[in-house]
Design a protein that fits this description.
Blueprint: E1 2-7, E2 12-19, E3 32-35, E4 39-45, E5 51-54, E6 57-60, E7 66-72, E8 74-80, E9 84-87, E10 90-97, E11 105-110, E12 114-129, E13 139-142, E14 146-150, E15 155-157, H1 160-164, E16 168-176, E17 184-188, E18 193-202, H2 204-213, H3 219-236, H4 238-243, H5 259-288, H6 294-348, H7 354-382
Parallel strand pairs: 4-12, 12-18
Antiparallel strand pairs: 1-2, 2-3, 4-7, 5-6, 5-8, 8-11, 9-10, 10-12, 12-13, 14-17, 15-16, 16-18
Length: 383
């Protein structure tokens, strides 16, 4: 085997030369085979934030989503990493190459300078939550698609003796990035969406039951009934005001992500971060045991550390949202406890009747129990 140097105007090319066996002809003894690989230009048009693997090289696209490099002519392994997370609730998913191939991982044969572009489709995350009845529909959806949302049950019995008396918690409306009083509705995915089912207490049957039981109190029962109805109207008056608006606009509070959505996002991101950290550990162990080269180690280390950094930031944001939700529930709990103290004081000085006291106390107790259950659920899931 010998080396052959070929001189051109711009470059010197080196090739391995293997002389062919002599055939008795003098000219034949000087024939040879030469394999010469010229570097060719490869241009990849991807999307912002995209990265690819070319053989053993990790390549990051520039701010315009382009990659340009010189590689030897021939066959090369190319892998477009997918999905690409653009932020909370938004990602780009590889769809196809410009030559029609739908394989993100493939071999490219490059005999000459070549250009390829990749098409990505935008997806947004939809979080559909309900604090009372479990509802489906959460997940990633293509941008521009329409998603059906349906509440499987529109009423459930209350906890404790109020439920025994016929008290119910009933579906009232959807809120967040969608407002609707219909239990089954649709939403268009043109951005990340959060939708929460809002419920309200229905004390109609327990009230009339108490009035019947306490019928001997006469006028006192009627006063209690009027007082409770006024209280119910005060606590639910916001919903009818929104209903009469042609295009209701949720307030800043309405746009706060519901707790089930926060938990779902936190668990998903934590799981992805854990997988990346496991890969980093295995990579470092393999390098320490001289199972992979320095070049491959540095390439993969850069890739995985970048993914871990991005996921850690998103996990911290989700955890911050959970702590914020817990703080709101704590404030609500403190307010209800204060209302209970005021109610007890009014009963002691006989400002309200026994019937009014028992009815109001049962309502506040039910709300306090529900808030404590929600706090416990949030704390348990994040732990």
């Amino acid at each position: 085997m010998q080396e052959l140097f070929l001189y051109t105007k711009k470059k010197v090319l080196v090739a391995d030369v293997e002389p062919r066996a002599a055939s008795g002809n003098i000219a034949d003894s000087h024939r040879f085979h030469a394999r010469i690989s010229l570097p060719v230009d490869l241009s990849l048009s991807l999307t912002r934030g995209a990265s690819v693997r070319i053989d053993d090289r990790y390549c990051q696209a520039d701010s315009d989503g382009n990659i340009r490099l010189k590689i030897p002519a021939g066959s090369h392994y190319v892998e477009a990493y997918t999905p690409i997370y653009m932020g909370s609730g938004e990602r780009d998913v590889f769809e196809r190459w410009s030559d029609g191939s739908t394989e993100a991982k493939r071999n490219l044969i490059l005999p000459r300078p070549s250009s390829y572009s990749a098409t990505y489709k935008k997806q947004y995350y939809l979080n559909v939550t309900s604090p009372i009845v479990k509802v489906g529909g959460s997940g990633w959806y293509d941008a521009g698609s329409t998603v059906n949302i349906a509440m499987p049950a529109t009423s459930v019995p209350m906890y404790g003796w109020l439920g025994t008396l016929g008290g119910k918690i009933v579906f009232d409306h959807w809120r967040g990035d969608l407002y609707s009083r219909e239990s089954s509705t649709t939403i268009k995915m043109d951005s990340p969406k959060t939708v929460e089912a809002k419920w309200r207490e229905d004390y109609t049957i327990p009230i009339f039951t108490l009035i019947t039981i306490c019928g001997g109190l006469g006028g006192t029962s009627i006063i209690a009934f009027k007082h409770i109805r006024a209280k119910r109207k005060a606590t639910t008056k916001a919903a009818p005001q929104i209903q009469v608006q042609p295009t209701p606009q949720p307030t800043t509070e309405e746009r706060t992500p519901p707790k089930d959505e926060i938990i779902s996002e936190y668990k998903q991101l934590s799981s992805e971060l854990q997988k990346i950290e496991q890969k980093l550990t295995k990579l470092k162990d393999a390098y320490a045991n001289s199972m992979i080269s320095d070049e491959i180690y540095k390439t993969l280390l850069t890739e995985y550390e970048k993914k871990a950094q991005d996921l850690k930031r998103l996990v911290d944001e989700a955890e911050s949202k959970i702590k914020s939700e817990l703080a709101k529930l704590q404030d609500e709990e403190s307010k209800i406890k204060k209302d209970l103290e005021i109610l007890n004081a009014k009963q002691i000085i006989e400002e309200i009747s026994e019937t009014e006291y028992l009815t109001e106390k049962s309502i506040l107790d039910a709300k306090l129990t529900e808030i404590q259950r929600k706090k416990s659920s949030l704390t348990y899931r994040i732990d």
